[in-house]
Each structure stands twice: as C-alpha cells, then as structure tokens.
Specification:
This protein has about 130 residues and is an alpha/beta fold. Helix content is about 35%, strand content about 20%. The protein contains five helices and four strands; from the N terminus they run H-E-H-E-H-E-H-E-H. Helix 2 links the parallel strand 1 and strand 2. The longest helix is centred in the first third of the chain and has 14 residues. The two termini are about 20 Å apart.
C-alpha cells in the first residue's frame, strides 16, 4: 500500500509529472480558477502539471441535496471517475496526484494504490512543515 511521502511537497513534486484532481459542487463556478491556483502552487514547487481531472457533484447522481457531499468516503470520487483518473495517471506515468480537496490519510492510501502514484492534497502545499 502506498503511503503519504515523508518528504516535504517541494521534494516530492520537484521534477515530477503531476495530475490535478478536484471534486466540485455543480454550483461552484470558480472551479477552473481553483485549479489554476493549485497548478501555480505545484509549478512553484517544481512540478509539471500534465493533466487536470474534475468531478462535478449535483449534475447527476443525487442532485442538489448532495452537492457538497463526497461520492465516497474511500475515494471522494465516484467509482467510474476514480477508475478513469487512475487509468490516465498510470498511462501518463504521473508521479503525484494533487487534490484540490482535503483528504484523509485513508483516502490518500486508497487513491495512491488506485492511481499508482503518491496522492496529496493542495492544502499540503500551503501548510508549513508539511
């Protein structure tokens, strides 16, 4: 099982191909700008953003009542979207997937195994000492 890297994000991202991932409410019209901010942070840490993956919540699978709720406690994403991103990460030989959303340690481990790379949250890039 892949674990969260013990190195700070700067060393994990330096020279690495990175996938950006985010789960957003269908009401969130700023999701592109949020991904742009995350991309700038990844690049400031030496990573190369090679793909962006977005899952919108509320467009389908539960409607407006569930827009702010993750699809899964294990992966945050729907099973189909998680498989799609995993396939893309493996095909592009991505070294790190960075989520816009906060992640639990369990989610990091499950997603890391699925994606075949380290998985971190964007908040790790903005948290000193992480």
């Amino acid at each position: 099982m892949r674990r969260y890297p013990t190195e700070p994000p700067t060393s994990v991202l330096a020279g690495t191909d990175v996938a950006l991932v985010g789960l957003f409410s269908a009401k969130d019209k700023e999701f592109g700008a949020k991904l742009d901010v995350l991309a700038a942070s990844v690049e400031a840490h030496g990573g190369r953003v090679v793909s962006r993956h977005v899952q919108r919540r509320g467009v389908s699978h539960g409607g407006a009542a569930k827009m702010a709720v993750p699809f899964s406690r294990r992966t945050l994403l729907s099973p189909g979207k998680a498989r799609e991103i995993a396939q893309a990460c493996r095909a592009a030989e991505v070294g790190v997937a960075v989520f816009v959303n906060p992640l639990t340690e369990h989610q990091r481990a499950v997603l890391g195994d699925m994606f075949g790379c380290f998985v971190i949250s964007g908040e790790d890039l903005f948290t000193p000492g992480r």
